């Protein structure tokens, strides 16, 4: 690492003002600060010094999502191998590669499951980060500002909320929309009002519904079709769900790559709360909002809509509720900033998730749309919370 530091220092003048590669300074800083902490210091007399800089916050989120990523690779391979077990026949190059390295397409093989799933996850991850980094660097060069670590989290989260079978060109198009339209045109990291990863997912949801929406499960086996657990519940109620609750909790069900394991999300949530990176108020409020709404609909009941009877503990483990609650709703940029506002924001998201799932049959999963709706409402919520605080303080001062 010392040799690398010396190499950077040797060529730094070429990228500074007046240097040969002056216009590429943001690219140099991106690579430099990826390996090392920035050497820039505040020159003014007044500044705040804190150990929790942007890079550390982003890295903590990346660490928190590792359990979900590991489970994503394993479960993707497990779901495919569970169908292919005993066939020994590959339907695509990934399965052929698994067989080529001496493994079998057998769901009882932990290594085969993980490697098989990794071969789906890794290309999506690479395409997502290459396309996203490209736009970040382009905007950094054009605006002549440094490329910060804001995309680091988006590049980790987006591959986990898409199907394993999504075409790679759609990954590039979707993340380009998320970075450019949802973030950069509003000024970049810290100025976006909706979550870029969810914006990218929503764009694909509406632009290419054949690959990313509907009630068919996403299993990495060519020609395989089946109903999602949510669609099973919508048709015949909770008793028709073929997966057990414990399997759904651990993550052994089909779905988007990294959204299936509630257990992995809880581990990530514990780390985010312990380090103070994410707000427990939002997570808890979202859970309460979901549970209260589900119980209310359970009480109301319906003779024509079985989803009214779906209890809260099933809403928790189906779809992307847990993943969205932990990693998406708590985004510090797009969520409410006041404590009271966080409770209102979380309750609103939990309410909207169940409302969309149960009342609106056009959208079998409501987490994505509920969080985006919460993002849009967050500034208004904070505005009225702050306004209320100012009024109460004025009354106390007068008294």
Unreliable runs:
none
How does the major sheet shape up? Answer: none
The tally of structural domains comes to 2
pLDDT averaged over residues: 85
How many beta strands in the DSSP annotation? 0
Q: What is the helix fraction of residues, given as a range?
A: 55-70%
Distance between the termini: 63 Å
Judged by helices, strands and strand pairing, the structural class is: mainly alpha
Total helical segments: 18
Please indicate the percent range of residues in DSSP E strands (runs of 2 or more): under 5%
Write the element-wise H/E pattern from the N-terminal end onward. Answer: HHHHHHHHHHHHHHHHHH
Radius of gyration: 23 Å
What shape does the CA trace take?
A: globular
Task: List the main descriptive attributes of the protein structure presented here.
mainly alpha, 18 helices, single chain, 399 residues
Summarize the SSE layout with pairings.
Layout: H1 2-11, H2 25-35, H3 54-64, H4 66-84, H5 93-100, H6 110-143, H7 150-157, H8 168-180, H9 196-207, H10 209-212, H11 229-236, H12 245-250, H13 262-275, H14 280-300, H15 312-317, H16 321-328, H17 339-359, H18 367-398
Helix pairs in contact: 3-7, 3-13, 4-6, 4-13, 6-7, 6-8, 8-9, 9-18, 13-16, 14-17, 17-18
Q: Can you describe what's shown?
A:
This protein is an all-alpha fold and 399 residues long. The chain contains 18 helices and no strands. The chain has two domains: 1-38, no CATH class; 57-390, no CATH class. The protein has helices spanning 2-11, 25-35, 54-64, 66-84, 93-100, 110-143, 150-157, 168-180, 196-207, 209-212, 229-236, 245-250, 262-275, 280-300, 312-317, 321-328, 339-359, 367-398. Helix 3 (54-64) packs parallel to helix 7 (150-157). The mean pLDDT is 85.
